[in-house]
Amino acid sequence: MSDGVAVGRALVEDFCLLLPSRVSDLENVVVTAPAFVAILLKAFTHIYPLAQNGVALPDLCPPSRLLPIVADWVARNPLLCCRPRFSGLTSFLPYLFPLVDADRWSCVSLPSLLRWTILGPIVLDAKANLVLSPLHTTLLKAAVQFQREKHAVADTSKARLASDLMLTMRDLVSLVPSVTEPDAFDRVQLATDRLAEAVQLTQAGSLIEIRKCLKDAKELAGKLPENKLLLTILAHWDRQRNP
């Protein structure tokens, strides 16, 4: 286990499970150590991916007390999830968290946090989704804000971030048949709407390059219940690829 993931697990156990009365201490870390929080966001989403290989398990879901903390961090500093801002810490990141390699954009947690908000309506309960709804909106705003700052992201990094989003799409396709509750249609449509919004704003914000995997995206979209927003957005970027 990497040191970064180990630190993430320890913080969850100490502040969310063993000492919930001290949660405010963890919440305020975003003010004193924003770079550390950016690493934790990546670690938390790595520890709790909600599903693996299309299967959702309780151990893959974040504790209920962790979700409001993450949502608060992102609300207070949205660009922590989509901009590498580590300066002096950069050389130490591979030791803290091996997923952060020579590509500094690999520490960006936006696609992984979007995974939470996209799969949340399928995997998590109603209480958790009350937190994920404003988190999703904040993440989309972060993508727009990132676009305004005109950061240069290498094509290889865009492809990596796009593959993260495609993995979420594949898991969504696999999880949809398991949703059998009376509100199943609404939950699936909400998840698919969020996927469409994520594709649109991260592509428009130059964080990902979805056009190179459009064939797979369109094939996966065909396996989901029809969603006009997703189909429209994929068609738009298809036209941009082949004007």
Briefly note the structural class of the backbone.
mainly alpha
What order do the strands of the largest sheet run in, or round the barrel if closed?
1-2
End-to-end separation: 46 Å
Indicate how many domains the architecture comprises.
1
Number of helices: 12
Strand portion, in percent?
A: under 5%
Count of β-strands: 2
Global morphology: globular
Give the SSE map.
Blueprint: H1 3-18, H2 23-27, H3 29-32, H4 34-47, E1 51-52, E2 55-56, H5 66-76, H6 93-96, H7 110-123, H8 126-149, H9 155-175, H10 184-204, H11 214-221, H12 228-241
Antiparallel strand pairs: 1-2
Helix pairs in contact: 1-4, 5-8, 7-8, 7-9, 7-10, 8-10, 9-11, 10-12, 11-12
Task: Write up this protein.
It is a single chain. By secondary structure, this protein is mainly α. The chain has one domain (3-241). It has helices at residues 3-18, 23-27, 29-32, 34-47, 66-76, 93-96, 110-123, 126-149, 155-175, 184-204, 214-221, 228-241; strands at 51-52, 55-56. The chain has a two-stranded antiparallel sheet with strand order 1-2. A hairpin with a 2-residue loop joins β1 and β2 (55-56). α1 packs across α4 and α8 (126-149) runs parallel beside α10 (184-204). The radius of gyration is 17 Å and the shape is globular. It starts with a helix and ends with a helix.
